[in-house]
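BUG: 3D viewer hangs when loading the predicted structure for this chain

Environment: internal workstation, default settings.
Expected: structure renders.
Actual: progress bar stalls at 90%.

Input used:
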Amino acid sequence: MANALEPSRSTAKDGALSLRGVRKVYDPHGTSVVAVDDWTLEIAAGEFVVVVGPSGCGKTTLLNGIAGFDPITDGEIALDGATVASASRSLRPGADRVVVFQNGSLFPWKTVLDNVAYGPIVQRRMSRAQALQAARSFLTRVGLGDIADAYPRKLSSGVQRRVEMVRALINDPKVLLLDEPFRALDAIARGIMHEELLKLYDATQKTVFFITHDLDEAIFLADRVVVSTCRPARVKHVLPIDLPRPRTYLMMASPEFMALKRQIADAVHEEAEKAFRLGEPELA
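Structure tokens produced before the viewer hung:
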């Protein structure tokens, strides 16, 4: 049987993410709050990994370390064998790791087309004409060509989220980092967005590192679900999701889906109870 910490598949040329003994301590010379401790996980290029765990367990802290937004205290994070974060390395965010956050980040004064073209102009140094052409082509390919000239305020929150995904992917990152991007959506819109995200994933085969509290969301999207302990975050359990792709919402009523949910729910509930007894605040 394969080691659960090893990748479940490898379908892309690059984007292999390696986390080895990652540790994050806030205020190490004062209160010394350990947020992440000895987190070790290998993620294959093109793999979709979802991390679940109680509020405040350190999921977002870990994602920020991968993105290069927050330094780690010990360990190493590597992308395709090259170190992107370690205790001795300065922060290095990069276009190879793109984050989509919980809260919307579209520029309200720019059209959808200009929002999507912004990255290629700033990060990939395209001319404005080239970037607009690339953006329009990408939007058309994913079924958003009709709204290219609309402003974000005219769009539903779900469509705005789709545009943010496209804006992230047009920069051709190796890894897409998703911090509960659908948390603010209602259940129906969230379900639609899950299917839309998987269409983009199937088309691009980017490595995805996704964090959430929603167990249905985690199982429906992932190749593997990683359950985190309560703070400090450690890998508690890694469960391969052997549901066939492409996936549809009908799978969520299947016995196989429900069996996976019971396994993950038991592991998460145990950690949530620990966090409750310890009085852990709901921090990142």
